[in-house]
Amino acid sequence: MNGPRRTTLRIAGDTPRRRGQDRGRQARAAITRAWRVYEELFATVAAGNGRTLDVPALALRTVHATRAWAPELVEEMEGVAEGAGMPFWTIAALNARTEILAEAGAPRTGECSTLVRTGPRTTGGQCWDWHRELADAWHLQTVTGDVRGFAGITEHGILAKIGVNEAGVGVLFNILGHADDAATGVPVHLVARQVLGTAGSFAEAVGMLTGAPVSASTVITVVTADRAASVELAPAGSAVVAPDDRGWLVRTNHFLAPALVAGELRGRREPETYDRHRLLTARAVEQDGETPDADALVGLLTAHREDGAEVCCHAPAEGRLGSRWATLATVAVDPAERRLLVHEGGPCSAGRETWIPLTAPRR
């Protein structure tokens, strides 16, 4: 790869608390820096929408829901706080950042785009778009000590995001928006963490997701060697969206399941999500029968405004916190090999020499 390699944390521990402590110790300074940006982001977005937030109270509300669903995740966050020397509620707030931003009324322009092709060997990947000010606030990781070892990318202090585990179960991540979104349920990042750390099959992952009591919306696309589906999660319920008849799943940032479309919030506010979906769907239709490798995938994802939709997102030089979106990473997943390829930045700058490989470790 050209330039410095992204930090890889190798998290281990035979209990959730020890894994959390290991994470907190390794990333102590980075978590502190990330928290300062998020603290400002929460306040800035809320003020821009005429709202005030009690972030500690909101964070602890999601902890209560998580403790009832998967108490080991709370124990792991407690360990992170201990290892990083930070108040527990700040770590809970980082893991619930999607839910807290929903309470703040955050716009989500520039969010992620995902492509998956099923077949004899399922592959896929995505752009991860987020605030340019948080471009240094994420890392690669391998995690051992839970039911399943896993690898992936996540933000400093957040237990997991995009990844694949030793059973070949991978998850890709797109935020959605529903009219009922709030910070009362299990954070969607913790739901992804639970899948990566425990799911041993496609069916187990989908079952876990559809049963998660979330309060903010997301779509988590589950990929295994021969199957894939998107699981839409919202306060109003969940829905499983299958690939089309050619084996493609195209996801941006709006609901596709009819039962959840009625509560659509994101697409009504920012219809560019539909533009990205149309463009990527058209590109998928033009592909031949071959499963795309990482290089073909970035070709499909490389699209800017002049192409009709900004899939590959570049931040403006100026602007306030909360308005400068960029594609921070491009990820390709090969679940048959339990492997991720990660490129720092958007797909338009990816090449054979820029991919960082990650393989899910054994427990």
Brief overview, please?
The chain has helices at residues 16-26, 28-48, 55-69, 71-84, 88-95, 97-104, 188-198, 202-210, 258-261, 266-269, 272-285, 294-301, and strands at residues 8-11, 113-117, 123-131, 138-143, 150-155, 162-165, 170-175, 218-223, 228-234, 237-241, 248-251, 325-334, 339-344, 356-359. The chain is of the alpha+beta class and 363 residues long.
Set out the fold topology:
Layout: E1 8-11, H1 16-26, H2 28-48, H3 55-69, H4 71-84, H5 88-95, H6 97-104, E2 113-117, E3 123-131, E4 138-143, E5 150-155, E6 162-165, E7 170-175, H7 188-198, H8 202-210, E8 218-223, E9 228-234, E10 237-241, E11 248-251, H9 258-261, H10 266-269, H11 272-285, H12 294-301, E12 325-334, E13 339-344, E14 356-359
Parallel strand pairs: 1-4
Antiparallel strand pairs: 2-3, 2-11, 3-12, 4-5, 5-6, 6-7, 7-8, 8-9, 9-10, 12-13, 13-14
Helix pairs in contact: 1-4, 2-6, 3-4, 3-5, 4-5, 7-8
Structure description:
The protein is an alpha+beta fold and 363 residues long. The protein folds into two domains: 8-104, no CATH class; 113-359, Penicillin V Acylase, Chain A (4-Layer Sandwich), CATH 3.60.60. Helices cover 35% and strands 23% of the residues. The protein is built from twelve helices and 14 strands. The chain has helices at 16-26, 28-48, 55-69, 71-84, 88-95, 97-104, 188-198, 202-210, 258-261, 266-269, 272-285, 294-301; strands at 8-11, 113-117, 123-131, 138-143, 150-155, 162-165, 170-175, 218-223, 228-234, 237-241, 248-251, 325-334, 339-344, 356-359. The strands form two sheets. It has an eight-stranded mixed β-sheet with strand order 1-4-5-6-7-8-9-10, with helices on one face. Strands 11-2-3-12-13-14 form a six-stranded antiparallel β-sheet, with helices on one face. Helix 2 packs parallel to helix 6 and helix 7 runs antiparallel to helix 8 (202-210).
